[in-house]
Amino acid sequence: MEDESLKFNVVCIFFRPVKMISILILATVLTQVWSEDCNVRSFPTGTVCVCNATYCDTVPKLDVSTGKYQVYTTSKSKLGFYSEIAAFANESTEDAVTVTVDRSKKFQTILGFGGAFTDATGINICSLSQEAQENLLESYFSENGIEYSLCRVPIGGTDFSTRGYSYDDHEGDVTLELFELQQDDIDYKIPYILKSKKLTNDQLKLFASPWTAPAWMKTNKGWAGIGFLETEYYQVWADYIVKFFDEYEKHNISFWGMTLQNEGINGFVSDALSRINAMAWLPAHMNKWIVQNIGPSIRKSAHKDLKIMVFDDNREALFLLHPLLNNETVMSYVDGIAVHWYWNWMPISLLDVVKPYLDTRFLLPTEACNGDGNDISVVKGSWERGVKYINDIIVNLQYGASGWVDWNMALDENGGPTYIDNYVDSPVIVNKTLQEFYKQPMFYALGHFSKFIRPGSVRLDASITGSDNDLKAVAFLRPDNLIALVVFNK
């Protein structure tokens, strides 16, 4: 293949399946598919697509027939989604790049892709006009957008809240009579969850994650720092979590799943080093809490079908997971294993410890973002940050992950709000002053997976020859019997 035919960075190709098909990335274009194009704005750091109350780019409709394929393209030089329908060609060249998709070799089933309904996300959406809000939510959830299907909801406050809070900050209230959702939920989470559910025809899966118990239940009496749940409150904390699901149910929001503790490793770190809301668990204590408290409490509640995920942490904390995996009673309550992408320079092979359990359980990356730690928080239009998303998603999917979930869906130009100054980047940046928002390369990178690899899709074997290691590819058989092939050209 001539170099001129490889002027894409990431594409998704659709076609009707046969048992095995080799695809030459070479064809005659027949038809271009119409959509609203990217409203481009360039910053010194990169390019974004600008949306406001009156305009926002969309994703072209999928319309492919037998003998043809439809290709969606995004590149550094042409941000957005661009689509063409073409006919397969039998011709080849000596330096052809060939992707072979083998339908007979099947792997994991996809649960979905998405982001998190944090307080910061809601605050930024709320800062826009009603029309711009609709465009932002449609960009993420509608058929004209990238169709997020699996999203995370914090249980209480996080570092991306405007304050530290729980649902019961009344010390000694072990009966939880004073438990109540906060105005943060009422204003910044629930309204946008409900609107997003409507945009997905109520097909949006939600899972919840706790950062910390109320401070009075912990050994250090604080939101962050080195602190454990007091043993006497093990059942109270389990009841608290069940009550969270009860209260959201009253707002017509039900959940598909839950994780047991967000980044418990942060609970072993002094608040001089990390101010992120956290709670530590020793493996023996987590085992006890699962078996005696939270496991039975969930399974006996109205939410007994919740998918329970363990870990929900970074690879460097895997030593905390081993004792859980080796406890059959603990694992009888466990449906999945959640992981985060931070410190992902550590090899994914560290997760080999979970592979024996993936025949009956799923692996789900549940949080990711750029700009964390000592990195620059927001880099508008950074293509490199989009590439990091693409690489991480592909590697995780090839490993056996059943989806991939981002962190904040919308942040301001500083990367907040965050009450502990833990600013980071997001696929969508909101400019409140100009009443507009910017879709970054991360948005389109993630969209090639969330839009086209639908829940229920099954991963197929995809191999590449003649690429000189410049291409990466993953293929999926979708529930509509189309094959989606995502190809990344480095």
UniProtKB/TrEMBL annotation:
Keywords from the named record: Glycosidase, Hydrolase, Lipid metabolism, Signal, Sphingolipid metabolism
Gene Ontology terms: biological process: alcohol metabolic process; autophagy; glucosylceramide catabolic process; lysosome organization; negative regulation of macromolecule metabolic process; protein catabolic process; regulation of macroautophagy; regulation of membrane potential
Enzyme Commission (EC) number: 3.2.1.45
Keyword Hydrolase: yes
Domain Glycosyl hydrolase family 30 beta sandwich: 456-490
Catalytic reactions of this protein: an N-acyl-1-beta-D-glucosyl-15-methylhexadecasphing-4-enine + H2O = an N-acyl-15-methylhexadecasphing-4-enine + D-glucose; a beta-D-glucosyl-(1<->1')-N-acylsphing-4-enine + H2O = an N-acylsphing-4-enine + D-glucose; a beta-D-glucosylceramide + H2O = an N-acyl-sphingoid base + D-glucose
Gene Ontology CC annotation, any one: lysosome
Pathway(s) of this molecule: Sphingolipid metabolism; Lipid metabolism; sphingolipid metabolism
Broad enzyme group: hydrolase
Domain Glycosyl hydrolase family 30 TIM-barrel: 110-453
GO MF term (any one): signaling receptor binding
Pfam families in the record: Glyco_hydro_30, Glyco_hydro_30C
Annotated SUPFAM superfamilies: (Trans)glycosidases (SSF51445)
Family: Belongs to the glycosyl hydrolase 30 family.
PANTHER family: GLUCOSYLCERAMIDASE (PTHR11069), LYSOSOMAL ACID GLUCOSYLCERAMIDASE (PTHR11069:SF23)
Name of this protein: Glucosylceramidase
